[in-house]
Amino acid sequence: MTDVVASLSEVRNAIDDLDRQIIARIAERQQWVVEAGKLKKDEEGVRAPDRVAQVIGKVRGLAVEAGASPDVVEKAYRALIAGFVELELELEIHRARAE
């Protein structure tokens, strides 16, 4: 990031570029979540509260290292994790119906 910002349009363009990168990384994370879901035995394994707590602790620490708000990062990750849990459960229902 530079110290001199010429316009709001430039800032928005930079944010749009970051959004594209973030979405690509979320898609990559989703692929791994789906793979992990195939290895889980039940809903408890999908919800995995101990693992969620571990991830939240890790990303809060990463946020501090990166100069981001740990609270904002935690909220974003909790929403992301909730979405992925819902996706895993939906995929599990489809797999069970296919059997």
Low-confidence stretches: none
Q: How many beta-strand runs?
A: 0
- Spell the H/E element sequence: HHHH
* First-residue to last-residue Cα separation: 51 Å
Task: Indicate the overall shape.
Answer: elongated
The structure class reads mainly alpha
Helical content stands at over 70%
Q: Care to describe what's here?
A:
The longest helix is centred in the N-terminal third of the chain and has 32 residues, at 8-39. This protein has helices at residues 8-39, 43-47, 49-66, 70-98. Helix 1 packs across helix 4 and helix 3 (49-66) packs antiparallel against helix 4 (70-98). The model has no long low-confidence stretch (mean pLDDT 94). The protein is elongated and about 60 Å long. With 99 residues, it is mainly α.
What's the topology here?
Blueprint (H helix, E strand, L loop, with lengths): L7 H32 L3 H5 L1 H18 L3 H29 L1
Helix pairs in contact: 1-4, 3-4
Task: Put the structure in a nutshell.
The protein has helices at 8-39, 43-47, 49-66, 70-98.
How would you describe this structure in keywords?
4 helices; mainly alpha; 99 residues
